């Protein structure tokens, strides 16, 4: 596989390194979480220093981002924490500013190149969700226990790839393990989920290939998690006793 199975790493324990993105006025900082050596697709935490600007442009690949802390202004509109952005390849990113600096969870589907700086203003525009304003919805997995709800952020009509937030209530518990036919990626925004793979704490991240059993799940105080898959999410549940012995 050209992308390594990562489970779990904690972004708070990682150090920053210098990083540049085409079109941005300042050198930024990055914590690289996951990287595909073939396609250049990546997931990272990036930090825009105060006064970062971008005059706008079109990029070669789709970019998805979640504003974690700080301020960001795009086309004159101000956005704050937990705003979700999806910029499809070739879609116009209008002029951007971060006055006081900000931190983003930043995901690309390949190597990021600026392909066009000319704007025509005709695009439908990038998708921007203030997640605080999105409605909670029931979970979509048949058999998912009561005690969690989701907010849909992005859905690709062709591939079924999707992103969502999952809010889990305190004292949620599921003793089963899950297996998915798709790649699953997650970032813990707040709270903590205990699993047999260790504690999934605030700032923790995983990138998990398909068909890897994971569980069981248990949280004392609840959590809010960002999830992402590369295709339609389906879940097979298995009991611990049914798992192959390692
Ligand atoms: Fe899962």
Write up this protein.
There is one protein chain. This protein is mostly beta strands. The protein has 2 domains: 6-130, Sandwich (Jelly Rolls), CATH 2.60.120.10; 137-242, Jelly Rolls, CATH 2.60.120.10. 0% of the residues lie in helices and 51% in strands. It is built from no helices and 26 strands. The protein has strands at 6-10, 17-19, 28-35, 42-48, 52-54, 57-59, 63-70, 72-74, 77-79, 83-87, 92-93, 96-98, 102-108, 114-116, 127-130, 137-138, 148-155, 162-168, 173-179, 184-191, 193-195, 198-200, 204-208, 214-218, 223-229, 236-238. The strands form 6 sheets. Strands 1-23-20-25-18-17-16 form a 7-stranded antiparallel β-sheet, with no helix packed on it. Strands 2-3-4-13-7-10-15 form a 7-stranded antiparallel β-sheet, with no helix packed on it. Strand 17 and strand 18 (162-168) form a beta hairpin. It is globular. The two termini are 21 Å apart. The model has no long low-confidence stretch (mean pLDDT 94). Fe (ii) ion (FE2) binds at residues 178, 180, 184, 214.
């Amino acid at each position: 596989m050209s992308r390594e199975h990562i489970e779990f790493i904690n972004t708070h324990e990682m150090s920053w390194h210098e990083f540049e993105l085409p079109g941005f006025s300042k050198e930024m900082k990055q914590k690289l979480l996951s990287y595909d050596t073939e396609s250049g697709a990546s997931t990272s935490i990036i930090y825009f220093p105060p006064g970062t600007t971008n005059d706008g442009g079109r990029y070669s690949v789709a970019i998805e981002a979640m504003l974690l802390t700080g301020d960001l202004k795009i086309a004159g509109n101000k956005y704050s924490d937990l705003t979700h952005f999806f910029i499809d390849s070739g879609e116009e990113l209008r002029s951007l500013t971060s006055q006081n600096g900000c931190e983003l969870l930043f995901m690309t589907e390949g190597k990021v190149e600026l392909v066009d700086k000319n704007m025509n203003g005709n695009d439908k525009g990038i998708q921007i969700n203030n997640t605080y304003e999105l409605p909670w919805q029931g979970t979509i997995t048949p058999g998912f226990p009561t005690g969690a709800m989701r907010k849909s952020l992005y859905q690709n009509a062709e591939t079924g790839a999707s992103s969502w937030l999952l809010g889990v209530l305190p004292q949620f518990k599921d003793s089963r393990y899950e297996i998915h036919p798709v790649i699953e990626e997650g970032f813990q925004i707040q709270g903590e989920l205990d699993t047999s793979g260790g504690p999934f704490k605030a700032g923790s991240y995983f990138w998990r290939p398909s068909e890897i059993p994971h569980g069981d799940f248990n949280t004392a105080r609840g959590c809010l998690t960002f999830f992402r898959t590369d295709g339609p999410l389906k879940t097979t549940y298995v009991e611990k006793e049914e798992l192959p012995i390692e």
